[in-house]
Structure formats: C-alpha cells, structure tokens
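Priority: medium. Attachment 1 of 2:
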C-alpha cells in the first residue's frame, strides 16, 4: 500500500486514489493545506496498484528524441487578452472539441479553489484561461472519467502540471492515440490553505466579498502582469504586481510551496506529454513581427501526434519556429527545482494560528520600500519604458 513517510515524496497527483479497486484511498488535507493519500487499512487488499502508478516511485526516464519548438500568439484578440501568455492551449483544446472531444483543464471555482473539470463546448474554454497559482485538485474520479471517454473512442485533452501528466499516464497503463496531453512549465504549486488565507486577507482589506481573482491579468500589459481581485463592488479595480501583492510576493518567495516541488522529479526537457507550454517574455529576441507586450507562448512539441495537431491549428497563430535548445535557454523551471524559503516552517505554523490579515502583515507587510517599487513600476509603464527598465533590473539584480 502507498505510504508517504516523507512529504517530499508525494506530489498530490491522486493517481493512487484513482487506481484503487476498493476505493480504500482518500486524499486528505494536511496542516499545510496539501492533499496526501490516506489508506483505509481495513478495506485495503494490499494489491500494490497504488504504488505501481505513483509517478515519484516510477518516474519516466528521460530519453532524448526529436522535438519541435515555436513561439505563438493566438490571432483571436479576445483569447489572447484573456490568456496568461499567447493563447496556445485554447487552440489545442478547440481542435479536440471540434473532433468530438472532451477537454480537462483547471478552473478557479466559485469556492475560489482550483479544480480540474471537463468541458465539451468551445464557449466554456474561457474557464481554463489565465494561470492558477495554487495547486489544483484532481478529484471527482477525473482519471476514471478520462479512461472511460478514451475507451468510448472520444478524443480527450488533459492539461496539468508535469507530475499530474505522469500520474495520469501511469494510471492509464498504455498510450492512447486519442489522448492529447499538455503540461505547463511549473515553478512550484502553492498551498490552497495559504490562498484561502489570502482571500480572507483581501476580504478584510477591501471590505468586500471576493467574487474571483485573476492571477496574471494584462491590465498593464504582458510584461507587468498583475493580480486582479474582483469584488462585488470594485469592478475589478485591484491590480497589484509581484512587488506589492501579498499572494504574488508569497508565491515568488517560495515560502508556501508543496515540499515535493523543492526536489521535483519532473523537471526535464524530454517529457511524456505531447506539448509543453510556458511564457515567452523576450519575444523580440525571436521575432520582430510578434507583438512584444500582448503575451506569447513557447510551445515544445514532443510527439508525432503533437506535430500533427500543431500543423492542423497553426493558422490560428502568428508564430515563429525556433530551435528547441533556444526555446528552453534561460528557462530554469524546465530543469531546476526552486529552493525552499528558510522561513517556510514558521510561516506555516503561523498560518495555522493567525488570521489572513495577521499572517500577510507579518511576512509581507506593505512597507515604504514596497510602495516605492510599485510607484516606480507604474511610472515606467506609463512612460513606455517598462520593458527596458525591467531588463536592466533583471541584469543587475538577477531577480524577476
């Protein structure tokens, strides 16, 4: 039976719970807000299925193969505006739906938590746009649903983190011609508990009910994307960046990540998915024709199936083909795990005893320095020199 003796040895993909023939495994939240498998030993028949599908116990070995790489921007301006980067996933998903398919992706629900859900209509694809900087729950029998659709002959697209993709592949036990997998290059997955604390904090600070949030809004453009908090009365008029929003500051400080993210088994160039997608901030380095501040996606294509799909949808994009080595150059998250913050342990202890307001005011207070940096970024944006100023800042400080 599956036993998690060290938290870093579980990525929370839920494949073990899905494969259990007796439903003896439940995913339960620990005191940091992350889900881990708990086995009902009276129900368990000790068949070993859960251990066989674990992507950390059985990580796919990296073997070089031929890849293709592109920088893309969706030609549909509405899709491009609503997407975190260049709208690549929407085009892939549309292709699947137009072939009588089903698309599984992550949406931020009305409970303000990230969940994997299925859609079968193109008009519902907006639910998957924009990043979700919080670990998603792959619950509700998602793996079994996918297998059922595949065996019915339906086309299925599944998008998630690399560990979720490998967990699904292990669960399915074989390759399916009608399965399309898209992994998103992942910095780390933050705690749902801490995000709930953030929502609690914003309710108090904004004195209003939080309807939803957008983690990477392009209100100030792609290069200065911001956290957008939408309440009952503010009409979405909250836009704070990585330097000033408490959630973004916590996420990029690596203080609230899942333990497995600090020793990730899935950071590699050659992956089991059909596509790997992620941001491209330095568009001008690859193309003068693509817009420099509307968002662009790097697309790494791993399989023959992926190449066939890209050729079928390429007219949806403005794009440029580049060498795979150029695509991954400088993308540390492809191959390197982020280091844990030294204050992580005390942060989670405080999270279990403090209100959201107390927690974020202690660890990420709105200091004079924070206010000044926010003003500088806004001024650079309004003067039209943000991209140049940011490039200089990164070069001098080696910080984002």
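Attachment 2 of 2:
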């Amino acid at each position: 039976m599956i036993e998690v003796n060290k938290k870093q040895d579980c990525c929370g993909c839920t494949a073990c719970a899905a494969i259990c023939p007796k439903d003896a495994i439940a995913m339960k939240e620990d005191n940091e807000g992350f889900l881990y498998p708990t086995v009902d030993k009276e129900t368990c028949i000790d068949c070993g299925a859960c251990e066989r599908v674990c992507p950390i116990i059985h990580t796919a070995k990296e073997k070089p193969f031929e890849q293709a790489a592109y920088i893309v921007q969706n030609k549909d301006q509405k899709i491009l505006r609503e997407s975190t980067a260049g709208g690549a996933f929407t085009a892939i998903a549309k292709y699947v739906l137009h072939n009588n398919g089903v698309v599984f992706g992550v949406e931020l629900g009305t409970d303000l938590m990230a969940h994997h859900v299925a859609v079968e209509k193109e008009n519902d694809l907006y639910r998957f746009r924009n990043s979700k900087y919080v670990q998603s729950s792959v619950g509700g029998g998602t793996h079994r649903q996918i297998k059922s659709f595949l065996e019915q002959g339906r086309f299925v697209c599944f998008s998630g983190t690399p560990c979720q993709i490998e967990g699904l592949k292990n669960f399915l036990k074989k390759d399916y011609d009608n399965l399309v997998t898209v992994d998103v290059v992942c910095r780390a997955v933050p705690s749902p508990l801490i995000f709930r604390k953030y929502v609690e904090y914003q309710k108090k600070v904004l004195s209003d009910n939080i309807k939803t949030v957008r983690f990477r809004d392009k209100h100030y453009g792609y290069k200065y994307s911001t956290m957008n908090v939408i309440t009952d009365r503010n009409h979405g008029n909250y836009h704070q960046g990585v330097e000033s929003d408490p959630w973004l500051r916590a996420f990029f400080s690596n203080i609230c990540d899942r333990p497995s993210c600090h020793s990730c088994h899935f950071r590699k160039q050659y992956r089991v998915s059909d596509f790997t997608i992620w941001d491209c901030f330095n568009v001008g380095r690859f193309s003068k024709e693509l817009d420099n501040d509307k968002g662009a996606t790097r697309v790494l294509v791993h399989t023959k199936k992926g190449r066939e799909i890209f050729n079928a949808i390429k007219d949806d994009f403005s794009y440029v083909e580049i060498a795979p080595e150029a695509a991954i150059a400088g993308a540390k998250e492809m191959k390197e795990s982020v280091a844990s913050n030294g204050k992580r342990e005390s942060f989670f202890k405080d999270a279990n005893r403090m209100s959201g307001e107390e927690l974020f005011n202690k660890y990420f207070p709105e200091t004079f320095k924070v206010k000044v940096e926010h003003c500088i970024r806004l001024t650079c944006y309004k003067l039209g020199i943000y991209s140049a100023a940011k490039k200089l800042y990164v070069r001098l400080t080696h910080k984002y």
